[in-house]
Design brief:
5 helices, about 0% strand, SpoVIF, Stage VI sporulation protein F
């Protein structure tokens, strides 16, 4: 994972997030995660909790739709992180 992603997280949230924290979350992501609304909500909530930044239900739904429509897979977590950080 690029240091750019961690830098953007810190800049946007004011929180330090380690690569270890991100990899711990990413390790639980499976191909089925990207197709399940419930699992994506859980993942978004875990990221939200990690950086201590609340995510509204509307934003969560927008993120889920963007993730599902992008057809990305679990091997591209950096792309997912960048997409989430744009919100």
């Amino acid at each position: 994972m690029s240091k750019e992603v961690l830098g953007v997280v810190k800049k946007k949230t004011g929180k330090n997030v380690s690569e270890k924290d991100i990899y711990k979350l990413a390790s639980g992501v499976k191909p089925s995660t990207m197709q399940s609304d419930a699992q994506l909500k859980q993942l978004i909530q875990q990221v939200s909790n990690l950086v201590n930044v609340p995510v509204s239900e509307q934003t969560m739904n927008e993120l889920i739709q963007a993730i599902k429509s992008s057809k990305m897979n679990e091997s591209n977590m950096e792309q997912l992180m960048k997409m989430i950080m744009k919100k």
